[in-house]
């Protein structure tokens, strides 16, 4: 399965609680942090929910 790098590019301050929890579930704790995940449907769905706060690229 393909790998995806996810980088948080915007703050979660003043965002709904569900978006904050999604960032934590992805392993992101602050702006500039990068994590690598398998491109599963679950991960892609979480990325879609917070696409305005993160950037993605193929690993």
TrEMBL record:
One of its GO terms (molecular function) is structural constituent of ribosome. Residues 4-54 form the Large ribosomal subunit protein uL30-like ferredoxin-like fold domain. GO terms for biological process: translation. GO terms for cellular component: cytosolic large ribosomal subunit. Keywords: Ribonucleoprotein, Ribosomal protein. Belongs to the universal ribosomal protein uL30 family. Part of the 50S ribosomal subunit. This is Large ribosomal subunit protein uL30.
């Amino acid at each position: 399965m393909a790998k995806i790098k996810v980088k948080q590019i915007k703050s979660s301050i003043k965002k709904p609680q569900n978006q904050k929890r999604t960032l934590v579930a992805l392993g992101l704790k602050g702006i500039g942090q990068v994590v690598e995940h398998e491109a599963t449907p679950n991960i892609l769905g979480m990325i879609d929910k917070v696409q305005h706060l993160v950037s993605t690229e193929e690993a």
